[in-house]
């Protein structure tokens, strides 16, 4: 009998066929059947059997890199043992076909092998949550995975955080995360690392700027400024009227709060704020270092020590602090004058309250910041409790 063998290439890399003949009876129809038409297996090394039913000789040609079968040939029925290598990659699938040809008749049967890939695993360090202060930070995230990975960033804000890369291969990788200095509110972003069906998250939170450019207190918008002492100061004088009090433009009236320069127009109030006596500044609180008084929430009346540190950071070689240097950094040196203890007004100097008591046996007074437009300097001086001067608050330090 003349035999003809037909070869076929099936799907990816695996091609198998069987051929056979009945040397004794050329007229017999070839029979070829399999006990199963497909097999699904997991990623691990697998061995399984498939029954082959045939009435002729057959031969198995196996060219797959990850599947092998024995025996390689036979005559009639047989039990095929398939060995599948462990799959360290992604899911894979191959088709095997068996073919028997006798004369002009062709018999072909397919067998499909599907194997899952190794389960994706991914871990990162750090993971979970990471808190960044307002100054920003650059840090590394190490990625450990057995698959190719990708990285997504989800955040309601833009521009505050950047990533050195957003994908990588199976090898251990490093992502550099850069968080910029914060000029506003709290930022939150979720970094999601994915590999196959696995994922892990890192939530990055950056604290708000402790010295925002502006804030609102009792309907008034104020500017902040961060000075060379590292502290956050109000850039302008307070213009708050406590409940039940009335601002006076007559220094002879003992109202506890007066217009600076005795000018009541809105522009003057905006530029100079109000003048307060010490009792009004306390706002019903007991006198103490760094008392809050009528300052906005989160702020307090500066102590003498805080004023000294501020001025020390701006001293020139002649040991003086000049108004122009303070103003260059945003600290407005407004000269609103003062309501004198004798009920008169003078506009020669500008004063701001400090919380440090400087009383003597005969005079009740506090320390304060004195601004001299004549000398063009700033220094610490004394102010009696009954005078009316400006109030410039400083933000509380973080604990």
UniProtKB/TrEMBL annotation:
It comes from the Bacteria. PROSITE patterns: PROKAR_LIPOPROTEIN. Signal peptide: none annotated. Residues 230-359 form the Fibrobacter succinogenes major paralogous domain. Residues 38-92, 155-207 form the BACON domain. Coiled coil: none annotated. This is Fibrobacter succinogenes major paralogous domain-containing protein. It comes from Odoribacter laneus YIT 12061. The lineage of its organism: Bacteria, Pseudomonadati, Bacteroidota, Bacteroidia, Bacteroidales.
């Amino acid at each position: 009998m003349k035999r003809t063998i037909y070869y076929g290439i099936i799907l990816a890399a695996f091609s198998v066929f069987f051929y056979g003949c009945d040397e004794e009876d050329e007229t017999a129809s070839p029979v070829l059947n399999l006990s199963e038409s497909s097999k699904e297996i997991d990623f691990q090394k697998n061995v399984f059997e498939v029954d082959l039913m045939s009435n002729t000789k057959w031969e198995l040609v196996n060219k797959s890199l990850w599947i092998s079968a024995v025996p390689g040939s036979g005559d009639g029925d047989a039990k095929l043992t398939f060995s599948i290598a462990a799959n360290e990659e992604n899911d894979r699938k191959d088709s095997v076909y068996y073919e028997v040809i006798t004369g002009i008749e062709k018999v072909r049967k397919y067998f499909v092998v599907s194997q899952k890939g190794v389960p994706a695993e991914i871990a990162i360090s750090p993971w979970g949550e990471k808190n960044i202060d307002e100054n920003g930070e650059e840090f590394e995230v190490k990625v450990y995975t057995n698959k190719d990975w990708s990285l997504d960033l989800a955040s309601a804000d833009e521009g505050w955080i950047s990533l050195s890369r957003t994908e990588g291969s199976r090898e251990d990788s490093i992502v550099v995360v850069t968080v910029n200095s914060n000029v506003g509110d709290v930022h939150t972003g979720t970094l999601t690392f994915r590999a196959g069906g696995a994922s892990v998250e890192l939530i990055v939170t950056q604290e708000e700027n402790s010295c925002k450019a502006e804030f609102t207190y009792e309907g008034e918008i104020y500017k902040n400024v961060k000075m060379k002492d590292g502290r956050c100061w109000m850039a302008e004088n307070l213009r708050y009227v406590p409940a039940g009090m009335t601002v006076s433009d007559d220094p002879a009236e003992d109202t506890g709060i007066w217009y600076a320069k005795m000018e009541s127009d809105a522009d003057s109030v905006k530029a100079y704020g109000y003048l307060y006596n010490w009792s009004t500044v306390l706002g019903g609180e007991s006198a103490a270092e760094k008392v809050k008084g009528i300052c906005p929430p989160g702020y307090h009346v500066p102590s003498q020590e805080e004023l000294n540190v501020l001025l020390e950071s701006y001293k020139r070689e002649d040991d003086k602090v000049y108004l122009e240097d303070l103003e260059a950094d945003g600290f407005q040196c407004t000269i609103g004058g003062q309501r004198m203890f004798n009920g008169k007004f003078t506009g020669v100097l500008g004063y701001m309250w400090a919380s440090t008591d400087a009383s003597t046996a005969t005079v009740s007074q506090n320390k304060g910041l004195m601004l001299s437009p004549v000398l063009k300097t700033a220094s610490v001086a004394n102010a009696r409790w009954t005078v009316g001067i400006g109030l410039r608050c400083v933000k509380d330090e973080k604990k």
